[in-house]
Design brief:
Two copies of one chain form a homodimer. Chain A is α+β, with helices and mostly antiparallel strands. Chain A has eleven helices and 15 strands. Chain A has two domains: about 260 residues, L-amino peptidase D-ALA esterase/amidase (4-Layer Sandwich); about 120 residues, Ubiquitin-like (UB roll). The first copy, chain A, is globular and about 70 Å long. Chains A, B: Pathway: Amino-acid biosynthesis; L-arginine biosynthesis; L-ornithine and N-acetyl-L-glutamate from L-glutamate and N(2)-acetyl-L-ornithine (cyclic): step 1/1; Amino-acid biosynthesis; L-arginine biosynthesis; N(2)-acetyl-L-ornithine from L-glutamate: step 1/4.
């Protein structure tokens, strides 16, 4: 938290609307940080459905395991999130801590423990004593409110330099349905099913399996399409809660034409939050969209785009404002996907720098260098092999990343 | 070259012996650098066999393509290497440049063009005019000598901060057979079949297919087991030349018991050179050996070790002398290989830090922190699943890497 605010931080934060059927409070449990909130408690009315995607890590955290076990139930009454300790790789004690925390929360909110969802973020490997939450959750439950949404966004931050929140309002059957979301994440960001932590709440009445299907679909082009440092967290969790209080008929099937409309609004929120995570990437000074087109398939395009976005040499060149497309060629070559060097074309923004396997005749060093000084960069690789395309969003790799991660744990 | 010499550089350089049947010269062609050699010419007597492994990159350089085409012939009379320009992603012009260079070299040495092997290293995407080599190779051919071996090691350097050379002498049938090798590489190091550039010469009479088999075998635990930054070069090339001048019976089959003895000596040279590349990793201040044991297979162990060695978060923690084993857990988890969190154990050196999926009872923060201040670190992950094991060698990730790569091209 001592690190300077990202130069890519938003100029202002949205004031998200109240969502009927849910309330929240934040608190200071003193888990690691001092003089800031580090616990978020959300309470959902009866009838709230839930869907989620979590990390594919083989070393997932105790809280992730807890969510995995309870997601099939599809119902939620509470959410407890803490920052400062990931409760990951904490063995049987971690599991007990999670059960105890859910028990405290269930008592505070008057529901069943399996209706409580949990997420923890912070240091890996330090035991997290559930006792920290005991009085804190009881007290927080007496203060539940429905605004402002920046408070929950702040309570879940770790190395984040700004809180991340976004919302959408979609009109269905003449009723304004709301979707609010928050996220955190700055390093260890190469989500594989979800980001570090993100929570989305809507008042839409929607069956859990439909919500799950929409979430799983749209996470692919939002959180799963970003990378800060290629490192996938043990704690990645994205949960969506639907209180069902909006005065419209429930969506109970993907065949309902409103599912697609609602899904696109959900996607907008997820995408905006994911981009905010990139823009708060540890040490980031530039946001970069890596577009790959003309690949043999979308999956192949994605793997090539990821190879470019994860390359330390590409990312340091961007930090140095160097249009070093030779390193882009290297990253295409190492991806292990079909590529024909002599058909490759590369653009920075609209500027063609390479074509047919060599530097473009129209290459303009001065114009390209000027483009690289911008804060939002677009890099497009055309493979000329097929119709596959994908975009991955990343940031540059700077001294800031080294500084932040050379002394994070201490 | 303006960057400070790696703190991990050797204190002195070996004086390698003369290898009968080959001579060399270095020269200044002014390709990119000023006031230093940037061309190496090696000349081999008739009867020299050759074997090689090159990058698997889909965007391999023109010189790599040339070597691939000529390796099946198994015979070599000359080698031309230049630094300062990789002649990669230079299209048809790159190919013509390579043919022209081989032609110059063949005329200078009095042999066939397909007996000339080529390698280029440096910037990607800049055309390399073969004319640069014309007079230079003719002149160099008049100065061919057989010592000192540090000269060829110096001529092939790019961002390297020290020359890399090593040799072995193995007694076969009472005769001392010699193996000399040089290598270069500092960044863009995650070889996939070979390193950036390495050349090994022996006076052993050995058939090309046998030499190839031994080279392919031993590259796996040497150059293919190192990573500096996870970026695989377009130009990775490892070539081994055997002049056959040692007064012993030729090895013509892998069944010859001497093949194994010779292979192990070859392996020692390859391994030492590979470790030197790690120790000259861009910005490196520590060398780290990542051992993985108890995996379901050797291949699985290797992928997990590589995941740890390539993790920017693990590498920055090591730079910060932080025994952050939580990040090691993260890297195990993201590798996508079988792992059981609750059976994992992790050691830094001999110090047990984690066991049975949580922090070890005997964990000693002070002792572990003291260990991390060392220059050569050993990190061992025990998975407890099977007998698979592998080791990957890497370095830390520091501000030096960012500085070097934020302004390399300019």
């Amino acid at each position: 938290m001592a690190h300077p605010v990202s130069p890519l931080a938003p100029k202002s934060y949205p004031e998200l609307p109240v969502i009927a059927g849910m309330r929240f409070a934040t608190a200071e449990a003193g888990i690691k940080y001092k003089n800031r909130t580090d616990v978020l408690l959300m309470a959902f009315d009866e009838g709230t459905t839930v869907a989620g995607v979590v990390t594919k890590s083989k070393c997932s955290s105790a809280a992730v395991d807890w969510c995995k076990a309870n997601l099939p139930g599809g119902i939620a009454r509470g959410l407890v999130v803490n920052s400062g300790n990931a409760n990951a790789f904490t063995g049987a004690r971690g599991q007990q801590s999670v059960e105890q925390t859910a028990d405290y929360a269930a008592k505070a909110l008057g529901c069943q423990t399996h209706e409580i969802f949990l997420a923890s973020t912070g240091v890996i490997g330090e035991p997290l004593a559930a006792e920290k939450f005991a009085g804190v959750l009881d007290e927080a439950a007496t203060r539940l409110g429905d605004t402002p949404w920046i408070d929950p966004a702040k309570a879940i931050m770790t190395t984040d330099t700004f809180p991340k929140l976004n919302g959408a309002i979609v009109e269905l059957d003449g009723v304004e349905v709301k979707i609010n979301g928050i996220a955190k994440g700055s390093g260890m960001i190469a989500p594989d099913m979800a980001t570090m932590l993100s929570f989305v709440v809507t008042d839409m009445p929607i069956a859990a399996p439909v919500l799950q299907a929409l979430l799983s679909q749209h996470v692919q082009t939002s959180f799963n399409a970003i990378t800060v440092d290629s490192d996938t967290s043990t704690s990645d969790t994205l949960l969506a809660f639907a209180t069902g209080k909006a005065a419209v008929e429930p969506i109970t099937s993907l065949d309902d034409p409103r599912a697609e409309i609602f899904g696109l609004a959900l996607r907008d929120v997820l995408f905006d939050l994911a981009i905010q995570v990139v823009r708060d990437g540890e040490g980031a000074t530039k946001q970069v969209s890596i577009h790959v087109e003309g690949a043999v398939s979308d999956a192949s395009a994605f793997r090539i785009a990821k190879s470019i976005a994860d390359s330390p040499l590409v990312k340091t060149a961007i930090a140095g404002e160097d249009a070093n497309w030779g390193r882009v060629v290297m990253a295409v070559g190492k991806a292990g996907e079909p590529a024909d060097r002599d058909k490759l074309a590369i653009r920075f923004g609209d500027l063609l720098v390479a074509k047919d396997g060599e530097r473009a005749v129209v290459y303009d060093e001065a114009a390209t260098s000027a483009y690289m000084k911008g804060e939002d960069l677009e890099l497009t690789v055309s493979l000329g092999l097929g119709d596959g395309r994908a975009t991955v969003y990343t940031c540059d790799l700077t001294h800031g990343y080294i500084t932040i991660n050379g002394d994070y744990r201490s």
